[in-house]
Amino acid sequence: MSAERLATLLLARGARWPAPIEWHAEIASTNDRLKELARSGAPAWTVAIADRQSAGRGRRGNAWASPLGNLHLSVLLPVPGDATALTLIPLVAGLAVAEAVEEQGPPARLKWPNDVLLGGRKVAGVLAEAASNGQGVDSIVLGIGLNVAASPGDVVAELRETTTCLAAALQRPVELPPIAAAVLARLRDRIGRLLDGEREASLSAWNERAREWWGRPIEVTAGAERVHGVARGVDASGALLVDLAGGGRRAFLSGEARELRLEGSR
Question: Which of 101, 117, 202, 258 has the smallest C-beta neighbourhood within 10 Å, fewest atoms?
């Protein structure tokens, strides 16, 4: 992939990309590169993309496998004027990635807080990292990892049953540049709507893509705490609503959720 080709593909989708696009054959982390650029005054929508990352990461500091042929991409987002929109950025970004994946054909689903799924297996994730200047958030870097040609399960045995890639789901090779253009175009559209105050429609679209989870027993891990209950959706802030096994309801703004399989189920 090259920055020039990506810019051309984005222009073909109807709009000139408004900021620089960097392409790297290999880099430690596209998120870290954009943090560096943000400190130097880079404009919103600056993009860093790499064929490989040597130190890619996901949420909670977990390593993110970054093999050749997959999408490793970060974007410097505009900072919302309304701080209450900040918590919705990961969900809206995941929605944009799901819509881009679906341009290839397979139905994409979402899992709180940041997973994009194909056939119940993770195909992509997003990581939003905000920096503060002491008076509030002054930059937001959004990282996106999308398994296009290779699944982490191909090299990490414990991920074999839980991850996939587009090529495997479609049973055909998938060209990377058009996918990258689709992700960026969808992201700019969805984040733009969020910044314009469109929240209800975005949350409704997110909930619809995650509907298979609602009503199911789950375990939420938040810090050192583990909570069992039934997933009920996300609220206006993007928090996961859980009806607790012992009664009552809690909202989780961060953490990890997994479905609890009932005894005898498959």
Answer: 258
| Residue 172 CA from chain centroid, whole number | 23
Kindly report, residue by residue over 115-133, the tens digit of the pLDDT: 999 999 999 999 999 998 8
- Verify that 55 and 158 share a domain, yes or no: yes
Is 132 in the same domain as 95?
yes
pLDDT (tens digit per residue) in 78-119: 999 888 899 999 999 999 999 999 999 889 999 998 899 999
**Together in a domain, 107 and 229:** no
Question: Distance between alpha carbon 148 and the CA centroid of its chain, in Å?
Answer: 14
- Do 15 and 125 reside in the same domain of the chain? yes
Q: How far apart are CA 124 and CA 143, in angstroms?
A: 11
What is the per-residue pLDDT across 175-192, written as a single tens digit (0 to 9) for each?
999 999 999 999 999 999
Q: Is the domain of 118 the same as that of 186?
A: yes
**Total structural domains in the chain?**
2
Q: Which amino acid, one-letter code, is at 226?
A: R
Tokens of 96: 């944009």
**What does each C-alpha distance from 127 to 29, 59, 93, 98, 124 come to in angstroms?**
12, 6, 9, 15, 10
Q: What is the DSSP string of 124-138?
A: EEEEEEEEE-SSSEE
**Confidence (pTM):** 0.91
Query: For 187-210, b where at least 16 C-beta lie within 10 A, e where not — what string?
Result: bbebbeebbeeebeebbebbbebb
- Cβ neighbours for 235, distance < 8 A, ≥ 6 positions apart: 241, 251
Q: Are 173 and 223 part of one and the same domain?
A: no
Dihedrals phi, psi of 105, to nearest 5 degrees: 125, -50
What CATH number does residue 245 fall under? 2.30.30.100
